[in-house]
Amino acid sequence: MCLLGIDLGGTTIKAGVVDGGGRILIKDQVATGAKEGARAVLKRIVDLAGDLLRRQGLKRRDIKAAGIGIPGSVDVGSGVVRLAPNLFWRDFPLRSELEALLGLPVAVDNDAHVAALGEIWQGAGRGFNSLLMVTIGTGIGSALVIDGRIRRGIFGYGAEMGHVKMLPGGPFCHCGGRGCLETLASATAMVRQFREYLAAGLASRLQDSPELGAREILAAAAGGDELCGRVVDLAAFYLGTALANAALVLGPETIIIGGGPVRAGEVILEPIRKYVAESLGDWQTTPLPVLAASLGNEAGIIGAARLALELYCERP
Amino acid sequence: MCLLGIDLGGTTIKAGVVDGGGRILIKDQVATGAKEGARAVLKRIVDLAGDLLRRQGLKRRDIKAAGIGIPGSVDVGSGVVRLAPNLFWRDFPLRSELEALLGLPVAVDNDAHVAALGEIWQGAGRGFNSLLMVTIGTGIGSALVIDGRIRRGIFGYGAEMGHVKMLPGGPFCHCGGRGCLETLASATAMVRQFREYLAAGLASRLQDSPELGAREILAAAAGGDELCGRVVDLAAFYLGTALANAALVLGPETIIIGGGPVRAGEVILEPIRKYVAESLGDWQTTPLPVLAASLGNEAGIIGAARLALELYCERP
């Protein structure tokens, strides 16, 4: 039995054919081209899927179902994307549209949920029953898994760690709030903080770099650049405190950190662990492992396949 | 079938005989006298229980089990109280001691958990499957109920909202941390904030009151005292923000606020609701009711009886 896993990002569409054991048989990616509109994006997904099947020598009937993760809020029951700013979508009936085009049952969920499903199935979360996962990127995605299942809560969108308020009067967030975690600890926030420190007169070896992202800041911090070190420490402080606060209420078995910046390794993981421990306090004697996601770019594909498996293959 | 519900506080021991439908048949209270030591406290509990049974014309064998809520951290499996500063207890085997003295099975849990069980059984939480409850007092207790059961998490102590960090570099907390919610929004914190505003030169009609507590501050705020209004607003801001942050991760069906200050009514509930809504943001369209606990002083007795019922009467 095979499944189609699709990871629809603001920049790239990744897709793969995944077997029932969670192995990717074939995968590939194309540009999203979100600005050309939803029809064009859907056509690229369908073409990519057809291409993968052809190259793997599979027919449509060899695929049981498809799963897709998207960067936004999803009503999982109806498969309608409520809001996906990076795709310019609002109230878009993704499931029904894609089911018609693919001729397959389609399961839709938020990309952070899908990544968490991937990690608990095949990655850093294997063996845990509950976990809290955050994904650091342009924003901050999050997912809460309790008893092996994504918990969506009454809002229906699941964990929204990106919008917990960590700094009264802090930076404005696109959600309308201020001081949301993603304005303080996302990749975007690190770049903004870097520029603020520069404007305040601090020096960095990166100060004349024309193209600057979280990756460059993390590399410079690892190489001893003081300004970049302060940027990373501040982001880790807010993230670690927010994670500890959530853990104090929830008590998950583990915390998993995903997203591009985590690939920089200990330069960001170590301060996150330090601030999580500091915020939890010494009186918490049960260890709470803070782990890096281990599936990297494949979490979205594997997790989307898992979502399809759960929704269409495991339930009666 | 009857149960014995005991609410052991730092100041008062309340106990009652509760029937299987959650009605209190008889109740009474005595001073705790915690400074006289654990033996003396246990003797008062046993004497109070014996007195209630006698007055109600019941024998020991009419009682199926006893439950007790205590102000501190409990290892629920063993019934050992890990830390209860208000009782001066540390690693005290309350369950085994009390079972020997009462001749009954005894269930022990944290008082905030017990109050939440009471509220979901017979109070403001009836009809909900999940809730987050905070109890404002000397500190801030909390409990998380998911699918009708107290969630204890990996730390085993359940929700610890009182120690989520809301203000970097904020007031020192007895837990060793700084800026914990209970240093900012408890009854104790309101009194401290009142004194800080006075010291900063603000005026209040209460400034010459020798005995001052949260109750007086809330009454003055309701009567238009500006300084007291600011104290209440600040406490509500921290509490509302922390509750919204937890709700963004968890999505409980309702939030219940208990403890003495809530009896002051809208003067504190209204700003808490306002800050919860503000922190959640406009994009959360599902209403999240923020309700006052409705069992008052009886929540501990009823909840402790419920705890005993769950542990000793409902499980095979």
Topology:
Two copies of one chain form a homodimer.
Chain A: E1 2-8, E2 12-19, E3 24-31, H1 38-56, E4 63-70, E5 73-75, E6 80-84, E7 89-92, H2 94-102, E8 106-110, H3 111-122, E9 131-136, E10 140-146, E11 149-150, H4 182-185, H5 187-199, H6 214-222, H7 226-250, E12 254-258, H8 266-280, E13 290-292, H9 299-312
Parallel strand pairs in A: 1-4, 4-8, 9-12, 12-13
Antiparallel strand pairs in A: 1-2, 2-3, 5-6, 6-7, 9-10, 10-11
Could you characterize what this model shows?
Chain A is an alpha/beta fold. Chain A has two domains: 2-117, ATPase, nucleotide binding domain (Nucleotidyltransferase, domain 5), CATH 3.30.420; 126-294, ATPase, nucleotide binding domain (Nucleotidyltransferase, domain 5), CATH 3.30.420. Helix content of chain A is 38%, strand content 22%. Chain A is built from nine helices and 13 strands. In chain A, the strands form three sheets. In chain A, strands 3-2-1-4-8 form a five-stranded mixed β-sheet. A five-stranded mixed β-sheet of chain A has the order 11-10-9-12-13, sandwiched between helices. In chain A, strand 1 (2-8) and strand 2 form a beta hairpin. In chain A, helix 3 (111-122) crosses helix 9 (299-312), helix 6 (214-222) packs across helix 7 and helix 7 crosses helix 8 (266-280). The two termini of chain A are 17 Å apart. The relative contact order of chain A is 0.16. The model of chain A has no long low-confidence stretch (mean pLDDT 93).
